[in-house]
Design goal:
The protein contains 18 helices and five strands. It has about 425 residues and is an alpha+beta fold. About 45% of the residues are buried.
């Protein structure tokens, strides 16, 4: 059964910790019992680009499984309920087993490394900017959880581990890998192992949904903590599936487009966050897109902004074409906290770029509109280069530091500058 068939996540009140534990006992499997003897011939039959793509993808899985196994212990310590601790202990066993399975595949099929350490070292050149930043954050989260076992911090940690790493990143990749090799039949051992891993991960994600639903029901602080984390991670998590050198053959050689992965992930995580009782569309600034857009169109826009150097890994020369400007200012308008200006005079903010066309934002009666060109009488004008504004709006640069360095030059009253700070409250690595 594919991930897509299993992805109908139940509501949190239909998920029980005892049931999750029982499922773990019933579905135990051995990483060493899987027969990989036929997989070497299947690996050799792949084209060169298919092998490069598989190495890139499997390296992310292998490194990720090892990382989550290493970082799970503080989660067990911080879990407030005994049932949660027991399940997390089973999950740590799962993650270690997954890492051993990938080690076997790299060693016996790809021919890379002889120990787990040497095989992991072999994967490092395959890990991109977005991936490294997500897993660096997972390392820091484990350290933070050791020092702060509060419920909001535990909720933040569960969101990172179970909902970002497993549901947003791992599951879409598993879906396409499983579907391709289940159909081709060329890597039977690998397909069996991935099917087992996917079943485990679905159980882990169900646990994350259950825990977060309980956290959100108990404390609004948990919602705030999780939304803050997701805003912080968005630039990195979006970029995880960026293929090396933007070579789209890395996915096409297996019969699907990059947009397919993104769209599958969007549908999947929307369903899971809804099951927690805190849907993505209700989280301020986390998913600033038109909710009526088809996931494929959302994916197309995200990929276009990343290839333009506006989102994802900074390239120092972001595209400032009218199409890219329109896409970015649509996001900026959706991030704006329009209610911060409600009940006060309308405000128009003008951006004058030294190397791109001007744009302006008008907020009136709690509504927001971003438009190209010059406004007739702006209340506040920001002068900057397009590159510097992208660095502030998307890449986490501190606007105050940029103003002190005269990289951003505001013109208008101090009152309106303070209003702008309320409309775009400062958050790490987020638009606005």
């Amino acid at each position: 059964m594919s991930v897509a068939q299993r992805d109908g996540i139940r509501t949190a009140d239909q998920i029980g910790y005892e049931d999750l534990y029982r499922r773990w006992e019933q579905s135990n499997w051995s990483a060493y019992d899987i027969d990989l003897s036929q997989d070497r011939a299947g690996w050799d039959s792949l084209t060169e680009i298919q092998r490069r793509s598989a190495l890139w993808t499997y390296s992310m899985f292998f490194y990720g499984e090892d990382s989550v196994a290493d970082n799970l212990s503080p989660y067990i310590d911080a879990a407030p309920k005994a049932e949660q601790k027991y399940f997390l202990a089973t999950q740590q066993v799962d993650e270690a087993r997954h890492a051993i399975f990938f080690h076997r595949f790299f060693k016996e099929v790809i021919g890379a490394g002889d120990s787990v350490s040497s095989t992991l070292a072999y994967t490092l050149p395959q890990l991109g900017w977005g991936y490294r930043n997500v897993f660096d954050r997972l390392d820091r989260m484990a350290d933070e959880l050791r020092k702060d076992r509060s419920l909001p911090n535990f909720a933040r940690a569960i969101a990172l581990y179970h909902m970002v790493v497993e549901a947003t990143l791992a599951q879409p990749g598993q879906h396409f890998i499983e579907d391709y090799f289940a159909s081709a039949g060329t890597l039977p051992g690998f397909s069996e192992g991935m099917s087992n891993i996917s079943r485990d991960e679905q159980r882990h994600i169900g646990f994350g949904v259950k825990v977060l639903a309980e956290c959100f029901a108990e404390s609004e602080e948990c919602k705030d903590a999780v939304a803050e984390l997701l805003r912080e991670l968005m630039p990195y998590s979006l970029a995880v599936f960026t293929p090396p050198n933007w070579d789209l053959e890395y996915t096409r050689c297996y019969g699907f487009e990059l947009e397919d992965i993104f769209a599958f992930g969007i549908r999947s995580v929307r369903t899971k966050w809804k099951a927690t009782g805190y849907p993505l569309d209700e989280m301020p600034g986390v998913f600033p897109v038109d909710p009526d857009l088809d996931p494929i169109e959302i994916a197309r826009r995200q990929i276009k902004l990343m290839r333009a150097g506006v989102m994802g890994e900074p390239n120092g020369r972001p595209d400032s074409s009218p199409e890219i400007q329109e896409l970015l200012f649509d996001l900026i308008a959706r991030v704006a906290q329009a209610n911060a200006a409600a009940g006060t005079d309308p405000i128009t903010v003008q951006w004058k770029f030294s190397d791109a066309d001007p744009w302006h934002l008008r907020i009136a009666n709690g509504s927001t509109a971003a438009l190209p060109g010059m406004a007739p009488a702006p209340d506040l004008t920001l002068e900057a280069s397009w590159r510097d504004w992208v660095a502030v709006a998307v890449q986490g640069e501190d606007p105050r530091r940029m103003m002190l360095r005269r990289r951003i030059r505001p013109h208008g009253s101090l009152r309106n500058l303070i209003r702008l700070q309320r409309i775009f409250p400062r958050r790490p690595n987020t638009l606005g």
